[in-house]
Amino acid sequence: MTVTPTSASGESRKALLHLVEKIAKRVWGDRGLGIMLDTVRRVSEDRKEFTITGQGTDVNPVFTVGHSNHSAETFTGLLRRHGIETVADVRSHPYSRHVPHFNARSLEEILSNEGIGHLFLGRELGGRPEGENFYDSDGRVDYALVGRSLSFLDGISRLEQEIRTRTVALLCSEEDPARCHRRLLVGRALEELGFTLRHIRGDGSIQIEGETDDGQPVLFPEAEARPRKSIRSASRRRRRPSSSGR
Q1: Cα distance between residue 187 and residue 162, in whole Å
Q2: Partners of 117 in the beta sheet?
Q3: DSSP 3-state helix, strand, coil percentages of the chain (rounded to 5)?
Q4: CA separation for the pair 186, 168 (Å, rounded)
Q5: Residues 26 and 75 sit within 8 Å (Cβ to Cβ)
Q6: Is the CATH number 3.40.1010.10 carried by domain 60-224?
Q7: 24 — phi, psi (to 5°)?
């Protein structure tokens, strides 16, 4: 599957654009037209839309979010603010002792009341996979091995199908995506398919994966130099699953 930037060509499209430009110029004048075209250009660049060759459909941006200790109202407010239509839950253990409204059944009901879909992919894309072969001697998950497993690839395929038609947010527990598997494992696989990750932070702001500030990476430069493994031990033999649900 090849991912290429959205493009269009043909004389009919050029003629239509020319007609629209003439009408807009007559209505708004030269200055108004310039402002409108500049706005359209910036929005287009910001969305970074892609077309899947052979599919003919635009792919929506991919968001990630951590539920942290948010109230249900605050959490759904974050989702509405960014137009999220489906929450893809990638927690291996979809429950929380500290914030029980994020337990799977409660969360599904909360999202349903807001008209937001819920897709559980914790078995395929969770940060604590089944199988001791995915863990090193310290109990850390080897993300490179997980990323090649049939179960993970199946989960990515299901997730990609959802992304093609709806605006999706990957859900885990941690507010900061820097050390979370939703970025280090699932996000990496999506980036390899051509998607750009947009991380919803607790204050509602967005951090775009790979963005820079005066030439310096803003997001997580320290993680790239390390082996692709979980930050902490995640083996059930070494520790009991915590309320983080990763």
Answers
A1: 15
A2: 86
A3: 45, 15, 40
A4: 13
A5: no
A6: yes
A7: -65, -40
